[in-house]
Each structure stands twice: as C-alpha cells, then as structure tokens.
Amino acid sequence: MVRKLDARRRDLREVIGGLRRPGGFLSEKVRDTARRIVEDVRDRGDAALLEYTERFDGVRPQKIRVPQREIERAGESLSPGIRDSFGVAIDNVRAFHENEMDHAWERSRAGATTGQRVRPIRRAGLYIPGGHAAYPSTLVMSAVPAQVAGVQEVRVCTPPGPDGLPDSYVLAVASLLGLEQVYAVGGAQAVAALAHGTESVEAVDKVIGPGNDYVTAAKLEVFGIVGIDAPQGPSEVLVIADAGALPERVASDLMAQAEHLSGASAVLLTPSEGLISSVEPLLSGEPADQVTLVHVENLAQAVEISNRYAPEHVHIISADHEAVMQDLDAVGMVALGDFSPVALGDYAAGPSHALPSGGTAAWASALGTHDFLTRTNYIHFTREAMRNLGPHVECLARLEGFGNHAASITTRMR
Amino acid sequence: MVRKLDARRRDLREVIGGLRRPGGFLSEKVRDTARRIVEDVRDRGDAALLEYTERFDGVRPQKIRVPQREIERAGESLSPGIRDSFGVAIDNVRAFHENEMDHAWERSRAGATTGQRVRPIRRAGLYIPGGHAAYPSTLVMSAVPAQVAGVQEVRVCTPPGPDGLPDSYVLAVASLLGLEQVYAVGGAQAVAALAHGTESVEAVDKVIGPGNDYVTAAKLEVFGIVGIDAPQGPSEVLVIADAGALPERVASDLMAQAEHLSGASAVLLTPSEGLISSVEPLLSGEPADQVTLVHVENLAQAVEISNRYAPEHVHIISADHEAVMQDLDAVGMVALGDFSPVALGDYAAGPSHALPSGGTAAWASALGTHDFLTRTNYIHFTREAMRNLGPHVECLARLEGFGNHAASITTRMR
Questions:
Q1: Which of A60, A287, B368, B388 has the fewest CB atoms within 10 Å distance of its CB?
Q2: Is A339 helix (H, G, I), strand (E, B) or coil?
Q3: Is there a catalytic annotation at residue B39?
Q4: Spatial CA neighbour of A205 closest among A141, A153, A145
Q5: Which helix (H) or strand (E) holds A6?
C-alpha cells in the first residue's frame, strides 16, 4: 500500500525517520559465513569454488572460466536490434566517462618541482550479480569506465545459470566489449577468488560491483588485501515535483524505481496536494508498497529533506529545476526535467548506474574512471631548493622526535 | 641486523617474499574488541567514551571537547621558529593540493546534456594518532587537503596525554589552521564517536587517518555508515640507486625510514656491489634491523621488484631517474634525485604524507582533495533527445525484465 506523509510544519528528523530505508549493519551471522567462505577459497582454491557454486547455485560448471567460444557465440546470437541498443548504451557511457578522467600535472617554483601522475590500476575484478535475474547493463556500467581508465586486465565474475554458464546477455556484452576473462562464479566465493586468486581465477587489485549481503560482507572481509567500492544498498529515488508535473509520468517514475522491490524506495516530495491525489490512484500492485508520497511545505523543504536523506537518485520536475539542483547536496545522480526519466540514466544516457545508496551519497560518488585510477605524487628538488626548505624539515622532524629524518636533511646541507 | 639479499638471476616472487613486510589480516580478537567498543559508544555515548579513555589512556579528561582557549594558548606558545616552519609546511601542502581538485564539466549533444558536479563532503573526521609520540605534521597533511576541498565541518580526534589534553603541538597546528572542533579521545572509541556521534562529538560523513590495529578495525566496522580511507600500515621505502649515489646519503635515507621501527621497511635496490658494501657499515642500532640491502641485476630489475611490491615511497638516485620513474607503477610517492630526500615530503614539500602502504599502492593513492569531494552526475534531456534514446532504453529494460522502467519511457514517447 502506498504510504503518505505530511511533512509540513514537522521536524525534519521525524520526516526522514518516516521515509523507508532498510539496511544498516550486516548481521554478524552473514559476516561470519562470508569470512569462512573467503578463508576456504583462499586455502583450497578451485575445489572450494566448485563446491560453493554447487551448493548455492545448484550447478557444477564444467569450467570456471567461460570458454571464449561461448562468449563469442553469445555475441553472435544477439538480434540486430538488441545489439544496436547495447551499442548505443556503450557509446554513451564511454563518451561520458572520457570527460571525467584525472589528469597529470606538475608545478615548479624556485627549483622545487612537485606533481602528480595518473595511471590505471593494473587488474580490476567486476562482480555482476545474477541468479533470479540478469544485469547485462551492470556490466556495461562497470566495465566501460574501467576500459576508459585504461585498465589492462578486467576480470568478470557472475553466477552460472542451470546450464553452468552465466546469462547469455551478460556474455554478449562481454563479447561486445572485448572482455575475455569471464568466470561462472558468484557470491562471496567470487569475491574471495578475485581477491586471493585460485588456479582458474587470477587475483586482481580491486573488486567492484553490487551484490547481496554475502557479496558485500566478503568485500569488507578482503578490503585492504584489495581495494573495494562503497557498499551499495537497495535502489532509491526522490522525485521532487511541483504542481506542473504530469501525474501519469510522475507515477511511472515512482513505479519504475519501486519495481526493484525488496527494500527499494520511491518517494515523491511535492508541495502540490493535487499532484499527490492524482498520482496515488495510478500506483498499484506489489511495487506500490515501496512508494511514499510526501506533502512538503515548498520545494525548499523538499531540498532540505533530500540533503538529509542523501538519496541515490533525485528527479526534479519543476520549472525551477536548475535552482533546485543548485541547492541539492549529497546525491548520486540528478535527473532534470520531465524528459529525463531516471530510466534513461539506468541504461544508456551516459553516467554509470552504479551509484551510492543507503545514505552513502553523503561521502561516495557514482562509479567512474576515478575508481580505476591511482595518483602518484612526486617531488624533485634542486640542491638550492632543498637547502631552502631543509631547515624547516629539520625543525619539524626533531620536534616529533625523528632525529634520523632530520639527519637525512642535515647530511645534504653541508 | 641489516639483511642482505642477492636478487640476480632469482625468481621475482622469491625476492618479493624475502622483503620484509609485516601485517596482513587484523586478528579476529582485535576485530571483536573494536566491534564491542564501537557498539558500546554508539549505545552509551560520552559515558562510554570517558570510560574507554580512562582505561586505555589512563586519564579522564575534564571535557571531551578541547576548550577553545587551550587551542589558542597552544598556538600562542609556539616559538617563532617553529611557527615559521609549520607555516611553510602548511603553505606548501595547500599549494600542492590546490592543483589536484576535481572540476565540474558538462557536455551537450543534440539536446542530450550530461555532466558532473563536484562538491565537498559536509563533515570530515580526522584521526590523529598519539600516545607514545605526537604527530602534528599528520594534522597538517590531512586537514589542509580537507580545507582546500572546501569541507565546512572538520572534526579532529586525538588521544589525551597525562594532563587530559592532546599534545600541545597538535593543538597549535589546529590553531594555525583555524580548527575549532578538537576532541581528546583516541582509539576505536574515537572512530565510533565520529561515526555515530555522542553528546560531545557530532557525527561526520567520513573518517580519515592512520592509527593502530584497533583504530583500523573500528574503521572497517563503521564503513558503510560513514566513508573511510584505505587502511595504512607501517611505513616503507625502496631506494633505487646506482653506483653514482653517495653512500652516506643513501644510508641516511634508509635510517630515516627505519626509525619508525615496528614493521617499517627500508630497502635498497642497487646493481652496485660497491654501494652495498659502503652503505652497510653506516647502518647501526635498532633501526638497522628494518633495513634490507638488495643486489639487483640492473635498474630494470629494481623496477620490476618495486612494481610487484607496490611500495609507499620510492626514492630514485640515478642519472636515469626520469626513465626509472616512467617504468614505475603502483607507488604512493616518488622522490627524484639526491636532493629530494623522502623526509622533505614527510614534512613540507607539498604532497600529503598520508600514503598507501602494505601493498595498497596497487589500488590506492595518497590522501588528497579527492578524498573530501563527491561527484554528482546529472542528465537533462530535451523531448527530442529523449525520443531518440528512448527506444533503446525500452529495449534494454524489457530484456532485463524491468517493464516499469520501460513504461516510464513509453509514457513519454506518445
């Protein structure tokens, strides 16, 4: 059932508390199970991988690594229309991410040169969830930024279906992107394999991608051995709309987000009582349980609520959308105007759909090239520049009790 | 005792194994203790903070938040020379980080506008270790990038000394930087306070900074509730030098890194047997136990070893240093040439000394403004642009079984 909330003249904290957002800590049981799986795969390699796959996915793949001919076959069997749509999505995601590269720079002042170099990480592991459904779009959204960043070795893990092979659309996207290292393994065991390596799966430097609680717990377990991305929870949208918004379209946006079901949140924030009463009857079925319609005082209050909630997506439908966006902080992606439904961004507009959710937008960003790049700082001083700065370093090092640090300067001051 | 290794004609993996590098997983006992402390502080707030501080730091501070007059007093009592040296360090660190900001961008093609906005996180928590020693330089190296990024609320936690106040140099740096929220609390309890908030300590969005195993474990515990930086282990340097390097200076660089003691690694990689035999007698005392002298085939082999080891620092002393750096991957900071001792970077050259160590340089970077910024992607389509892209999105959404996503497009195609 659709929930309704009146936020006018109410304490903001209370309103936020009233918005649905599940999640929170992973249970200790999930963490313990994930830890045991990670340690077992680390210690026993492929044998453990195959056992867990049989137990959790109900199938024992003939080979953990998907044969190249299966990837090619999946690519070849795409219908021209679908191939074209994936092609457009890939092109747009590539073009978008080519704009967000880090760039090297250098500065020199009086013989003191400092700078920053940018390079891709060497090996990335992408986790693509599967099981009940398949998400070839998620492979587009994580592999393309890795490729734009220049990562040489991209490995993909995704659970096998009943025939022991991953979803054929996921394989087809791998083929379109020229990815050759695809492994039919999912869950915590896949994360363990990517982090520690097995006979079949070479280890990587960083593991990226959404998954269920066991996948998330396994990522936290291996963090430090490898890099990981921020944990991603269920999907969320806040639609901020005023009286001019068309109810049918607003309802369609809410129902789109809500169809992710378990835990998804679709929230309308509007000062228009008329919009609420015309949207409400258009919401029905199971997804409607994920929807909350909030009557706000004005758009400024909607922004305040959003900034506290830190949502994954905001969709602004208002003549003032630029001004509303200007005031928004802490949000993963913003869709502006009636002709920018969030679904465009989910599939093909350009930005990755791997976004911070569950409040992590307060400190995390959309997946992008930054996640696949490292920056190396460097310093290069002339004798003169060293002698100018040296005495300050000697002073500070001594003050902290690091006499040898000071001495490494002193020996060069003579 | 200094260790020596001959890497010539030996398997790279074996050589890497021979280099000292402690660490690895946090023990389950440390993790459990940290989890209990985090939960206790979350549930009981200041009362728990004060109890843990009394237990671990042996003192019960009168106030958890350091009074403003104490911060000012520490600033005023700095000698002019020390104030000057901190001032130079702060200026250089600020100038360096002003170069590495992310910048907003936007692109438009046929009515399809996409872009990326960059904003600082709202609230950052900085952990500055203390106890046996004080690290005012670490406050410079983490607070200045936060300020350059534009973070409005910077909170600092650092353990109290016997008088219940943090180290006076740390307070003095807080005064120089205009930081007003300093808390006399350390350890896992400080991380818990920053993540969950207590009566005295307001919660933040991200917790940054090095610490002991309990601090690291607590950060892993709260990751997801707040952001954290990559775990930092003991300090490391690889000095890559050829026969032209001066033994006295190379020895001083090794001894500087080695004086961090527990777990620190200082490694010389050189093809020159002469350099090894003249450096060795210059190494003595406890720090010498942290040093390894490696005889390599040539500089190319030194680079290969470094790229596998992924060190925190590399110092290159060779006429070919530009070429060596070009081949280096996976390193936090590079110091180039004889007049660029790593100690310059540790205190005052510009780059933050908060660096990836323990092999994390393969995927992590030096602390910088990036750690305090978030990127928000946005899309803004005209009716025309939406109608061009829409059919592809409908196709891909249906293929993944998301009919409502497709419908949010279809309703706008009419």
A1: A60
A2: coil
A3: no
A4: A153
A5: strand A3-6
Q: Which of A133, A226, A341 sits opposite B400 (nearest CB)?
A: A133
Among B246, B242, B248, B257, CA closest to B321: B242
- For A382, residues 6+ apart whose C-beta sits below 8 A from its C-beta are A111, A112, B339
Chain A residue with the nearest C-alpha to that of B220:
A220
- Is B122 at the interface with chain A, CB within 8 A? yes
Rounded to 10°, the helix A80-98/A168-177 angle is 50
> B361: which DSSP letter?
G
CA–CA separation, B261 and B181 (whole Å)? 32
Q: By the CB < 8 Å criterion, does B304 face chain A?
A: no
User: In CATH terms, are B3-23+233-340 and B28-228 the same topology?
Assistant: yes
Starting from the edge strand earliest in sequence, which strands make up the sheet with A227-228, in order?
A181-184, A153-158, A123-127, A206-208, A227-228
- Which of A392, A409, A410, A414 to mutate: most B Cβ within 10 Å? A392
Q: Measured between alpha carbons, how far is B11 from A408 in angstroms, rounded to an integer?
A: 33
Q: What is the mean pLDDT of chain B?
A: 95
Among residues 370-399 of chain A, which lie with CB inside 8 Å of chain B?
A: 370, 374-383, 385-386, 389-393, 395-397, 399
Query: How do the domains of chain A map onto residue ranges?
Result: 3-23+233-350, 28-228, 382-413
Q: Comparing C-alpha atoms, which of B302, B305, B362, B303 is closest to residue B332?
A: B362
Architecture (CATH level 2) of domain B28-228: 3-Layer(aba) Sandwich (3.40)
* Residue type for position B66: V
Listed residue (B231, B233, B211, B287) closest to B256, CA to CA = B287
pTM for this prediction: 0.96
**Architecture of the domain made up of B3-23+233-340:** 3-Layer(aba) Sandwich (3.40)
ipTM for the assembly:
0.96
User: Could you read off the pLDDT of A365-390 as tens digits, one per residue?
Assistant: 999 999 999 999 999 999 999 999 99
CATH value of A3-23+233-350 in 3.40.50.360, 3.40.50.1980, 3.30.470.20, 3.40.190.170 = 3.40.50.1980
The 10s digit of each residue's pLDDT in A248-268 is 999 999 999 999 887 889 999
User: CA of A7, closest CA in chain B: separation in Å?
Assistant: 24
Dist. CA B160–CA B164, nearest whole Å: 5
Please tell me if residue A323 touches chain B, with a CB cutoff of 8 Å: no
